[in-house]
């Protein structure tokens, strides 16, 4: 059980880092940030915990790692989608329209 909790917290690091970067580069969130950050963390924790519970029955470490990597990418995407913007377009729209 302790190993699963450690894996869960390590799996949250990319999502938390994404939220920190979103707050830094897209700061115009108003008071919605107070509500959406805990909701995002809750959704990601539940999603990762469910994935870890399901992958316990899988014996292949390669398949477990692949599933966990995909789920971590999904949690990053969820963090990006749930990040609010007060008066600007959504973060996804702003990233799509960005020119490098």
UniProtKB/TrEMBL annotation:
Q: Which keywords label this protein?
A: Membrane, Transmembrane, Transmembrane helix
Task: List the source organism.
Answer: Paenibacillus nanensis
Q: What is this protein called?
A: Uncharacterized protein
Superkingdom, according to UniProt?
Bacteria
Entry keyword annotation includes Transmembrane: yes
Give me the segments passing through the membrane.
Answer: 7-26, 32-54, 66-83
